[in-house]
Amino acid sequence: MEKESLTPAVPEEAQLAVKTFNYRAKLSRVHVNILYSMMLLRITRGYSSAEASFLMGHASNTIGELETLAHKDMPVSWLCEMLEALGEPSYRGIIFTDFGKDVSCQSCEMQCTRYEKYVEHTLFRTDSEGKANLVYKVFETNPNYVEDEEREGELLVATRDILALLFNGRYFIEAKSPAAIYQKCSSLLGSDMKPRHAQQVLAEMIAKRGYPKLRRNVAKRKDKITYEKILK
Question: Considering the entire predicted model, what is its pTM?
Fold first, then answer.
């Protein structure tokens, strides 16, 4: 079940590892396929795990916990939910092999190595003889690395302006999902804008006192996080 990496190799200048984290859990082939598909989906979109969680209407650590094997179960519904939140119109690239077939679990270890500019995720699976076998390895940009701080600041300012305009109008009269808010802002600002910009500005708006104000509706059970304008 070894999978080829579809992400670029880490350049030599970024090879100095900052720290490596190891996470272990028992996963089935189905779980591994879901995890691999979800990671590829968000990484190819250029989103961090926190941004993917935000767009899905969950707490910012939800997908991060999934990728560090903190969840015992990984239902296909999570994958479908991510497809919808990220605006993926098809199931291309999603691995359905073994879904509903092999449910036996084996010990797995996820090694997460952080570099200055990149993060390397490597998943190993232990066979019946105790040998660790490579399942897949993917790379992504380190979400803490900002290549152009000036441009980052400009995008935050532009996002504040757009969200202030929407807030002062009627856009937030009805509760809006994070994905809908991001899509609205990015359609006005262009492709340089990322979910993290909307996420940060929304947090700033929620922290402000007085009315009218923006409220973050906390998710309950199967509900998702939404944002709406409160007049009093």
Answer: 0.85
CA distance 104 to 1: 14
- At 1, the pLDDT band (50, 70, 90 cuts) reads very low
The whole-number pLDDT of residue 195 equals 95
Backbone phi and psi for residue 157, each to the nearest 5 degrees, phi listed first: -60, -45
E strands of the chain, at which residues?
17-27, 106-115, 118-126, 132-141, 213-217, 226-230
Distance between CA atoms of residues 128 and 138, nearest Å: 25
What secondary structure does DSSP assign to 137-169, as a single string? EEEEE-TT--S-HHHHHHHHHHHHHHHHHHHHT
Alpha-carbon distance values, 115 to 44, 52, 201, 202 (Å):
19, 21, 27, 29
pLDDT of residue 30: 84
Report the largest interatomic distance among the alpha carbons of the chain, rounded to a whole angstrom. Answer: 65
Measured distance CA(129)–CA(146) in Å, rounded: 44
